[in-house]
Design goal:
heterodimer; A: Rossmann fold; 6-stranded mixed sheet; 4-stranded antiparallel sheet; about 35% helix; B: MetI-like fold
């Protein structure tokens, strides 16, 4: 299996007026093609920093990140992003359709192809017919679906998500988790998710990268050996699920 | 139906006072023999004679042309400069004192200066209007750009938008509620400067017509000029409001939903 993303000895320091803050220290791991990988860690550990590096929004002070063997220096073509705060990441002045169309404008697509992609992406996330609505006319969960549709419409091979379900209610959260699993199945997309929710990480992932310490290092990479397809009812009651979440939780809290 | 009702009610609430005032002016001035305060009925007769449509081509057309050409040049410059300065707080700090100084000069007072540079033709008037219209828009654009949400910019970057798209599809729309308030002030100032610029050394334009009428004791004509200016100013504002509300319908809808 090919490597989609490789993080090699990445360190990150921020210069502040009070001195240098060392956020990440020699972080390395590899994400295999088609895998679902979650990054967890205590709050403030540097998960968001790592995500900014992965999406090319910031460059590491040492080490490098490669996407399909190519070192990234800006946001890579092959990657799409879903951010936590959908209210600030969707453009409120554009309809749902135009929000999804905006990143497509730079791909060489005919008008009909673009239209087709928008319709298909909305259908994939279960929002058929919402094209002409404004994002703010939709519920939080639906807005996050629009974010996911926008990411899918660019047909990325890698999807990166930053706490994508942190701002929606619990019920919607379960629906969106299953939606993400379905998307992964339908497109074989490599998915990388930053989350502080350990249950969610175990439920969705093939692998969980646990960050810990100040500066943060990779504490462990946990393989989630629960077979797919998973379901909210059964998987979460699985003996193995309980073991894994206890194990990951212990590491995140620094108890193990 | 309720929407219709509330619109009618709002219209009635807005219209009753103007009707009362006009009626009061009409009756109060009806028997006036004071040459400086002619009866409104006489002003109305003269108004129809002057402005429907005899003097429109030589006075209204030049005024509106100077106003619109100057205004659009001014706001285009204001948005462009404001965007450049607002996008970079460091650069804007160098320019702010100069901008603050220039915009503090009452725009009408700058007209004589422009006469020195451009003489007394339409070019001077358009430049004066453009410069006056530029500042409110410039300042509001700078302010709007400074308030850009970093998440929005990150979103643009990760979806690899071009700098042009970042500017016109993300930053300008995001700042547009604030920019529009500057555009409105610009329009009001542009109107004032258009008329004021005609008071000096022009034979054409509504401002020129009104001044010349007063200077030659054509008091009735002067009154029709004043009434016309009032009506024009009001109409411009109404049209502006409609365009603004259409352009910001996303913003208004969002606000309405949140309250």
């Amino acid at each position: 299996m090919a490597t989609a993303i490789s993080v090699n000895g990445v360190s990150m320091e921020y210069k502040t007026p009070k001195g240098t803050t060392h956020v990440l220290d020699d972080v390395s791991y590899e994400v295999q093609d088609g895998h679902f990988v979650s990054i967890v860690g205590p709050s403030g550990v540097g998960k968001t920093t790592l995500l900014r590096l992965l999406t090319g929004l910031a460059l590491p002070t040492a080490g490098e990140i490669q996407v399909r063997g190519k070192k990234i220096s800006s946001s890579p073509d092959d990657l799409a992003v879903v951010l936590q705060d959908y209210t600030r990441s969707l453009m409120p002045w554009l309809s749902v359709e135009k929000n999804i169309a905006l990143p497509l404008k730079n791909q060489k697509l005919s008008k009909a192809e673009r239209k087709e992609r928008i319709t298909a992406s909305l259908a994939e996330v279960g929002l058929e017919g919402a094209e002409s609505k404004y994002p703010w006319q939709l519920s939080g969960g639906m807005q996050q679906r629009v974010s996911i549709a926008r990411a899918l419409a660019v047909r990325p091979s890698i999807l990166v998500m930053d706490e994508p379900f942190a701002s929606v209610d619990a019920q919607t959260r379960f629906d969106l988790e299953d939606l993400v699993l379905k998307v992964r199945d339908d497109f074989g997309i490599t998915t990388l998710m930053v989350t502080h929710d350990i249950d969610e990480a175990v439920y969705l992932s093939d692998e969980i990268v646990v960050l810990h310490g100040k500066p943060a290092k990779v504490r462990d990479v946990v393989k989630v050996d629960i077979p797919f397809p998973r379901s909210q009812m059964e998987t979460r009651n699985d003996q193995r699920f309980a073991e894994l979440r206890t194990h990951v939780y212990g590491m995140v809290r620094g108890l193990e | 139906m309720r929407l219709l009702n509330s619109r009618i009610i709002r219209f009635l609430v807005g219209i009753w006072l103007p009707i009362v005032l006009i009626w009061w002016w009409w009756t109060w001035s009806a028997d006036s023999v004071d040459p400086f305060f002619p009866p409104l009925s006489a002003i109305w007769e003269q108004f129809k004679f002057n402005w429907i449509w005899q003097y429109v081509p030589i006075h209204v057309v030049p005024s509106l042309r100077n106003l619109f050409v100057g205004y659009f040049i001014g706001i285009f410059a204001g948005i462009t400069l404001g965007a450049l300065l607002g996008a970079s707080p460091r650069v804007s700090r160098y320019f702010e004192p100069v901008i603050d100084f220039l915009r503090s000069i009452p725009p009408v007072a700058t007209v004589p200066v422009f006469i020195l540079f451009f003489g007394l033709d339409a070019q001077m008037r358009i430049v004066a209007v453009a410069v006056a219209a530029c500042f409110p828009t410039l300042l509001s654009t700078m302010q709007g750009f400074r308030a850009t949400d970093p998440t929005l910019l990150d979103t643009g970057k990760v979806f690899r938008l071009t700098p042009f798209q970042m500017m016109w599809k993300v930053r300008v729309p995001n700042a547009s509620p604030i920019i529009w308030s500057g555009l409105q002030v610009s329009l009001q100032i542009a109107f004032v400067v258009t008329i004021a610029s005609e008071i000096l050394g022009s034979g054409f334009g509504i401002g020129a017509f009104t001044t010349i009428s007063i200077d030659s004791f054509m008091i009735l004509d002067a009154w029709t000029g004043v009434v016309l200016l009032g009506l024009l100013g009001f109409a411009l504002n109404v049209i502006f409001d409609l365009v603004e509300r259409w352009s910001l319908r996303w913003y208004i809808g969002q606000k309405k939903l949140a309250s």
